[in-house]
Specification:
The protein is mainly β. The protein has one helix at about 70-75, and strands at about 10-15, 20-25, 30-35, 50-55. It has one domain (about 10-75). The longest helix has 9 residues, at about 70-75.
Amino acid sequence: MSCQKCKSARIATIGGKTSDLCIFAFDGKERIGYVPFNVGVGGGNSDMLEFEYCLECGQIQGDFPITKSAVEEVFEDGE
């Protein structure tokens, strides 16, 4: 794998278990629960926080930009 921005091969993977206590905050709202889906850090009905980033330029890897509707869904699911 190479970086989406600078093409470096220096990609690190981060993962962690949140035990249902992942905090996602945006625009004055906060949600505590499972890792949110569709915001680039893992997600779904999962405790696992997972993402990759470039050690050369710092770019988080994934599908960006995150749409406004995807962020709004995080606060609508009630978890």
